[in-house]
From TrEMBL:
Cofactor(s), by name: FAD
A GO molecular-function annotation: flavin adenine dinucleotide binding
Keyword annotations: FAD, Flavoprotein
InterPro entries referenced in this protein's UniProt entry, alphabetically: FAD/NAD-bd_sf (IPR036188), GMC_OxRdtase (IPR012132), GMC_OxRdtase_N (IPR000172), GMC_OxRtase_C (IPR007867)
Domain Glucose-methanol-choline oxidoreductase N-terminal: 263-277
Family: Belongs to the GMC oxidoreductase family.
Keyword RNA-binding appears in the UniProt entry: no
Binding site for FAD: 97
PROSITE patterns cross-referenced by the UniProt entry: GMC_OXRED_2
Organism expressing this protein natively: Streptomyces lonarensis
Protein name: Oxidoreductase
Amino acid sequence: MQRPSPTARATADGPGEVFDYVVVGGGTAGSVIASRLAEDPDLTVALIEGGPSDVDRPEVLTLRRWQGLLGGELDYDYPTVAQPRGNSLIRHSRARVLGGCSSHNTLISFRPLPSDWEEWVAAGAEGWGAAAMDPYFDRLRNRITPVGEADRNAVARDFVTAAGEALGVPHVEGFNAAPFVEGAGFFDLAYHPETNQRSSASAAYLHPHLAAGDRPGLRLFLETRALRLEVDADGRATGVRVRGADGATAVLGARREVVVCAGAVDTPRLLLLSGIGPREQLDRLGIEVRHDLPGVGENLLDHPESVIVWETDGPIPENSAMDSDAGLFVRRDPASPGPDLMFHFYQVPFTDNPERLGYRRPAHGVSLTPNVPKPRSRGRLYLTSADPDVLPALDFRYFTDPGDHDARTLVDGIRLARKVAATEPLASWLVREVCPGPELNSDEELSAYARRAAHTVYHPAGTCRMGAADDRDAVVDPALRVRGVAGLRVADASVFPTIPAVNPMVCVLMVGERAAELLRQG
Ligand SMILES: Cc1cc2nc3c(=O)[nH]c(=O)nc-3n(C[C@H](O)[C@H](O)[C@H](O)COP(=O)(O)OP(=O)(O)OC[C@H]3O[C@@H](n4cnc5c(N)ncnc54)[C@H](O)[C@@H]3O)c2cc1C
């Protein structure tokens, strides 16, 4: 396959090239947008990606190797600030490679539920309802397919059967076929079952064109970091100041628009470093205010999870797509429009966090990770320095919602997981509950364990939230335009007003498809 074309030829502070569009972040949304814009041969598009190419990198492109990428050289690996009600040691993995997080995630692919989109409309995202958004799913170029037969592990099959028996939820074959509120089954994944290769955003939207050379207007700037957005005296974004791998800087100009797709951490970070954000924070750090926009970095959302681990009666079979191929959705509150508790089933003992609490990893085991589909806690991202190399502070404020809904959800999750584990055919595989352990039973004990052993499902979102054009706390309007700055849009997980009940990657891809259409409309 042809190597990606040129990286930035940055000359110190010299005027750089000018493109119709400059897209910052060749990740999940950015790959879609750049590819779609460049379908028009008359347009020039610069795609700025902080990481290297994923082409010809089997450690990236092989789905089952995902855990090997966490914390490595292709991971920005953000810490969180202290979480008094949760686990302060969670690291937020974010990929630094073409394809972004779709190049190191588990590629579980859920069409967002109708109620997820309707929540966005209620939050001011006019035009983003289910009827308008659903057709974008069918446009996605990724290969989205149920876990292949050969990858369906016997213990995962028995988990699906036991979950149905124990909780009375339906066995779902193909979660994307129709909206659901409950169910257990194998996931749909964006992958090629015959080779275990990723169908990431880059593999689906960029690789074929890099190989065919049929996107003449598209230039990739790899290993190139956007340091600051250039905004002129009239309040218009005119380009992006970048730094190449050799340390040289340049400005890439945008004739039409700049589109920021750097993800829920780096998009607000870049806006803040560019003087677009809450005046009080920018003043304190000595960053010149280009536009006072109070919502930048607010509304930090995530799906928190906890874990129950069982030791198994010997090793379990090896076959799998990526070691967490099946899951379970439950609706505890009949008034909820969608599921209000979700579980991933792992064919491995997932003990990273429990080990810090003194638990030992069993030689063989499986895990269930209950998570909170609609968390009520809201966090915040902010800068502590004007230096672009200082990491932003991520304060998720996990488990701080006044009604204790989020922690309560995990306690219910542990109790339901125990029911499933006690039910055949899963029960025969298991010899003992390793953590939290059968001696922990009260709500208080389970809540304390669930919060201290908490992890993230790696779904940060919401930090440049979309809202009505006159909503002073919204960062972008329903056309994804940054409010108050001309020629600048944001399109990635940061625009989510609320988090979908399901895993969000497909939602991000759909935001990318819609963003490309909005950009073409001008
Ligand atoms: C380990 C893990 C597992 C996950 N599993 C799933 C799953 O199975 N299913 C699911 O639905 N979701 C999953 N997710 C979440 C999902 O992958 C993300 O929500 C989604 O990919 C985010 O897309 P994005 O476009 O917002 O950001 P990203 O895909 O992160 O893209 C941002 C891009 O911008 C680049 N960038 C950042 N800053 C700069 C800068 N200053 N200059 C230049 N480039 C920059 C980055 O290098 C990156 O390529 C997972 C996430 C992780 C981390």
